[in-house]
Fold Poly-gamma-glutamate biosynthesis protein.
Amino acid sequence: MKICFLGDVMLGRGVNEASKHMSPQDHWGDTLELLSLADLRIINLECAITDYNTPWTKTPKVFHFRAEPRAVEILKAARIDICSLANNHTLDFCEQGLLDTRDYLLRAGICPVGAGKDIYEASKPCLVKAGNFTVGVVAFTDNEPPFAAGENKPGTNYLEVSLDPSVLTEVERTIQQTRDLGADIVIFSDHWGPNMRLRPSPLFKQFARRVIELGADVFYGHSAHIFQGIEIYQHKPILYDTGDFIDDYAVDPVLHNDWSFVFECSFDGYSFSSLTLYPVKLSFARVQRARGQECQQIMQRMLELSAELGTKLEVHDEFMMYQA
């Protein structure tokens, strides 16, 4: 079984405008072939999908990302199966925007996870069939505390990044609940930490390892807008940050938020067996596989960052691999 993990997908603002003149498939470029070969495709959706156009003003916020409902066709074009909504943009257009987003995704056959009409819906795992397996995804964020869901309040599944016993108890409870609901493989998604950081902090490394120790099979991180190194811990992958995948963002010429990967995890039975990384280059509202010298530069950065975490990757012409 193969699962593709992608970084932040932001379909609002400039991407929303560009989509009026592009086909849904155009935004994914030549990554569509890779995605079509996977059994499951998971993204962090970094915007609201809604016609509701009143932005969040309850607390100060600089950026508000909104895509019109036709954006769902972009997700369908790549056969996206699961969207994490536990992030700092899901409520950019208030609670109505969040509820609309969930509704549009569900109508399209895409499973939203990590946000909902109340804390019970926001914390509910997403379970999907992939081949002969049931994959369960739980999604959290430590971003934008005012967005947190409550008993009668729509919002995100907020969780502080901490080694406090109460936090770890919640992690363990959620993973066990997902197993009890029938998941063979559990993915822990976390939209965490500040932007533009090349390396996870010591606390983040400790936290991700504890998540694995508490029963998750994959740690799927995002938020920094640039990819970070990969760690294999207890024979399971920690993707500290998967970077960006589709957006309209200004590009930092040093940190390169326009570089990332398709992260393809393979499983043999219930066990992680390999990770294949396909470098990609983002342009305005579009992504494509990286080629030539730039492909080599992207892989070299990942090689070095992962080596710092004790992970040795095999470098091939246009992709990288870790073989368990």
Observations:
- The chain is about 25% helix and 30% strand.
- Residues 2-323 form a domain with the Purple Acid Phosphatase; chain A, domain 2 fold (CATH 3.60.21.10).
- The first helix runs from residue 13 to 18.
- The chain has a mean pLDDT of 97.
